[in-house]
C-alpha cells in the first residue's frame, strides 16, 4: 500500500478538522485526488526537485505532489486550522513534507528549499497575482524557481499568455513572457472546487528561461510597459511622453510608430524601445 492510500478522503479530513471554507482566505478546495494528481503532473518531473506549495489548505494538491515523487515539499499555509491536517500527510511521507504556518508573502523560499525548486499552488486570486509579479521580477535572473504551476481565474490566465492585438495583452503578458515560457496547461470549471467559485479557473505553467528573450534593462522595460498600458487607449507618443523629451524619435528608432497604441506592440519592440530609452 502506498503512503497516499493510508490517508483518509479529503471530505473526512475537512470534517475531522472542521475546515469549513472561509471566503476571507479565498478558500475553494480541490477534493478530487485524481484532479490534484493531474495538476501535480503539470508541474513536470519532481523527483529531483524541492517543491514550494503555497496555500495547501486540507492538502489535496500536497498529496498529489508527494505521490508524483517530489524530493521534498514545503507547504506554506496561513490558516492555522489546516496545520494538523497537513501534519497527518507529513507523517505518511516521513521527511518529505515541511509545513509552515505563515503568510506566503512574508517567507523567503531559499531559507527552506534547496534548488532546483519548482512552485505549485492553488491560491486565492489576489495573492496569486501578487506573488506571480514578485516571482517574475526578482533582483537577479535566473530566479529561485525553475517552474511555476499556478491556478488562476481563467481571465487572469489568459492575460498571462496573451499575444499582441488582443484585449488581454498587457503588463502581465510582457512580464511573464519576457524571461519565461508561459502556457495554459489545464482548464477547470467552477464545479471542480468546494465551494464552487463564480468563474472558471485555469492552471498556468511557466518555465524560467536562462536568458531574457530579448535584451533590455528590467527596470526600464517595466517603466515603459507600465506607462504604455496605464493609458492603453492613448497613442504611445502621448502615454510615454514622461519617459523622454524626444520620445517620438526613440519610438521611431525602435521601429515603433508613435501613433501606435500599447496593445499593438510586440514584446520584441517593447524591449527595443527600452534599449533606446536607456541610451543617454
Ligand atoms: N490548495 C488547496 C486546494 O487546492 O484545495 C487550497 C486552495 S484555496 C483556493 C487557497 C489556500 O490558500 C487556502 O487554504 C488559504 O487559507 C491559503 N492562503 C490564503 N492566503 C494565503 C497566504 N497569504 N499565504 C499562505 N496561504 C494562504
Please give a structural write-up:
This protein is α/β, with parallel strands linked by helices and 280 residues long. It has 2 domains: 10-208, Rossmann fold, CATH 3.40.50.150; 218-279, rRNA adenine dimethylase, C-terminal domain (Helicase, Ruva Protein, domain 3). It is built from 11 helices and 9 strands. The protein has helices at residues 10-16, 33-42, 60-67, 83-92, 125-136, 154-161, 171-178, 218-230, 236-239, 247-253, 267-278, and strands at residues 29-30, 50-54, 72-77, 97-101, 117-122, 147-153, 180-188, 193-194, 201-208. The chain has a 7-stranded mixed beta sheet with strand order 4-3-2-5-6-9-7, sandwiched between helices. A two-stranded antiparallel sheet has the order 1-8. β2 (50-54), α3 (60-67) and β3 form a beta-alpha-beta unit. α2 packs across α3 (60-67) and α8 (218-230) crosses α11 (267-278). The radius of gyration is 21 Å and the shape is elongated. The site of S-adenosylmethionine has 24 residues, from β1, α3 and β3. Residues 25-30, 54-57, 60-61, 76-79, 82, 103-105, 122-124, 127 line the site of S-adenosylmethionine (SAM).
Strand order of the largest sheet: 4-3-2-5-6-9-7
Order of helices and strands: HEHEHEHEEHEHHEEEHHHH
Distance between the termini: 67 Å
The residue ranges in which pLDDT falls below 50 over 5 or more consecutive positions are none
Mean pLDDT: 96
Helix/strand/pairing category: alpha/beta
Q: So what's the CATH class of the largest domain?
A: Alpha Beta
Ligands and ions found: S-adenosylmethionine
In the CATH hierarchy, the third-tier topology of the largest domain is known as: Rossmann fold
Radius of gyration: 21 Å
Anisotropy-based shape: elongated
Say how many strands there are: 9
Number of helices: 11
The proportion of residues forming helix, as a percent range, comes to: 25-40%
Number of domains: 2
CATH superfamily of the largest domain: Vaccinia Virus protein VP39
Q: How large a portion of the residues is in β-strands, by DSSP E?
A: 15-25%
Largest sheet: 7 strands, mixed
CATH architecture of the largest domain: 3-Layer(aba) Sandwich
Amino acid at each position: 500500500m502506498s503512503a497516499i492510500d493510508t490517508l483518509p478522503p479529503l471530505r473526512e479530513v475537512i470534517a475531522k478538522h472542521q475546515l469549513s471554507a472561509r471566503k476571507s482566505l479565498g478558500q475553494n478546495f480541490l477534493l478530487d485526488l485524481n484532479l490534484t494528481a493531474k495538476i501535480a503532473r503539470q508541474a513536470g518531473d519532481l523527483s529531483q526537485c524541492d517543491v514550494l506549495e503555497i496555500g495547501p489548505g486540507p492538502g489535496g494538491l500536497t498529496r498529489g505532489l508527494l505521490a508524483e515523487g517530489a524530493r521534498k515539499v514545503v507547504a506554506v499555509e496561513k490558516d492555522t486550522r489546516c496545520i494538523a491536517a497537513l501534519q497527518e500527510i507529513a507523517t505518511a511521507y516521513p521527511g518529505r513534507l515541511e509545513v509552515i504556518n505563515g503568510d506566503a508573502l512574508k517567507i523567503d523560499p531559499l531559507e527552506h528549499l534547496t534548488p532546483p525548486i519548482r512552485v505549485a499552488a492553488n491560491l486565492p486570486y489576489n495573492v496569486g497575482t501578487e506573488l506571480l509579479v514578485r516571482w517574475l521580477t526578482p533582483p537577479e535572473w535566473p530566479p529561485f524557481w525553475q517552474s511555476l504551476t499556478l491556478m488562476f481565474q481563467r481571465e487572469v490566465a489568459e492575460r498571462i499568455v496573451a499575444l499582441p492585438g488582443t484585449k488581454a495583452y498587457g503588463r502581465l503578458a510582457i512580464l511573464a513572457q519576457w524571461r519565461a515560457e508561459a502556457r495554459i496547461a489545464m482548464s477547470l470549471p467552477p464545479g471542480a472546487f468546494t465551494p464552487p467559485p463564480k468563474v472558471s479557473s485555469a492552471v498556468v505553467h511557466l518555465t524560467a528561461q536562462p536568458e531574457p528573450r530579448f535584451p533590455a534593462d528590467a527596470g526600464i522595460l517595466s517603466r515603459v510597459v507600465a506607462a504604455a498600458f496605464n493609458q492603453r487607449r492613448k497613442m504611445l507618443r502621448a502615454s510615454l511622453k514622461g519617459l523622454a523629451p524626444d520620445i517620438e524619435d526613440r519610438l521611431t528608432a525602435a521601429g515603433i510608430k508613435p501613433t501606435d497604441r500599447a496593445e499593438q506592440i510586440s514584446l520584441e519592440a517593447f524591449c527595443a524601445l527600452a534599449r533606446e530609452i536607456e541610451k543617454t
